[in-house]
RNA methyltransferase (Undibacterium parvum), 520 residues
Amino acid sequence: MKTISSRDNPLYKELKHLATSSQARRKSGRTLLDGVHLCQAYRQHLGEPQLCIVSESSAQHHEVAPMVARCLAAGTQTICMPDALYHALSQVEHGVGLMFIVATPSPEFPAQLSHCSVVLDNLQDPGNLGSILRSAAAAGIKNVFCSIGTAFAWSPKVMRAGMGAHFLLNIFENVNLHSLLASATIPVLATSSHTSQTIYQVDLNQPVVWLFGHEGQGVADDLMAMATHTVTIPQRPEIESLNVAASAAICFFEQVRQSQ
Amino acid sequence: MKTISSRDNPLYKELKHLATSSQARRKSGRTLLDGVHLCQAYRQHLGEPQLCIVSESSAQHHEVAPMVARCLAAGTQTICMPDALYHALSQVEHGVGLMFIVATPSPEFPAQLSHCSVVLDNLQDPGNLGSILRSAAAAGIKNVFCSIGTAFAWSPKVMRAGMGAHFLLNIFENVNLHSLLASATIPVLATSSHTSQTIYQVDLNQPVVWLFGHEGQGVADDLMAMATHTVTIPQRPEIESLNVAASAAICFFEQVRQSQ
């Protein structure tokens, strides 16, 4: 295991750049998994990281030590650094000091939209995106397509909220949703309060595409027009709408219920 | 309409304290509603505020002007202040400058737990709490009981996430959940991954109590033991659990579905 002890170390500078710049993460196709849970989930589903980083005070931690040992056994580059240097990379305040650097998965873009999918138009909030990814993975949905303008799925906040869901999904970003929806061979459903058909009345025991949009403005009109079905979640009229991640969870699990 | 133009004005100092200290809000039993949407929702459901505050540049805004006019017509104390002073009170970055100061509602604590309710044990995240309140109100659930340690429901973040749901609910805070659950005359349901009965198999066409807990640790063991039913949301085993606000939405709307 190597040790980095200076902020001027070139690798440290590179890591700092990766940790603090979402542009650097996008450009390099790499991201940072912060904390034992995310690192364990990554290894379980996708294998070894490119690089393992551990803070001095966490190296002997009962959950960290076996993770590090396995990295060393696998020949993965593993670096120990003083806590002060580590915490300048980490966004987790009271977390255990273990981090993986991994390649952002780049799944093959499908020629047709023919499997259960979630399509997100301009979704803003990292917490909402993470929650939607987590619900989708839990419901057995495999593909998530994000428009330009949707929050960056591989940001630390979204990954924390996703709790490892990222590693079970095919996530496509900066997608032209028009072309994508035009390629759909299965029903495309969007929720709307201006319709009478409820999610409980529509046949969800089949692959469908779920379309969700911006927290305030919803799905853009031109994309909404490409939905084959608009459905409503019946609710008290005094409430304008549900939180988008709550809506998505209700829709995905109504599909689970109907498929049982 | 009065104008405040100095940071040394005693009322301004009081407002600043209210805006920046959650303890001040708890102690005074008052809170701050920031933005047109929350103010409109409050007025619609609960009436006039104690005080209306408008920023100079927003006084003529097409949504704000009629709100202010109605406050003046109702004899509500209404104050205009320069944008710089207003923005020192507001947590909304690009919002329209309208704020209500209102008394935090203090509903009567029920002698028995006999109506549809949500019980929250040590829920931490303001966004999750706001989303749960919004889903509960949308599903027609009236009562929400929060333990000591649960996020403060009347904080600006929770109110923004709640989108006005607060004004449709009876929210009880700092509740002793043991005594409360001991008074239940209806089923108390908690979600768990260690049970085989699904939410789709249990009879929800009746009033029930939903018990949810801390984002990481779930419901405390001693409270969990007071649940009359533990139910599971069927999901892929690779995912540890759903986000608590997503779980709550799925449960509340399974109840809506069964009640239709």
User: Anything to note?
Assistant: Chain A has two domains: 2-103, 117-259. The mean pLDDT of chain A is 95. Residues 215 and 244 of chain A are 6 Å apart (CA to CA).
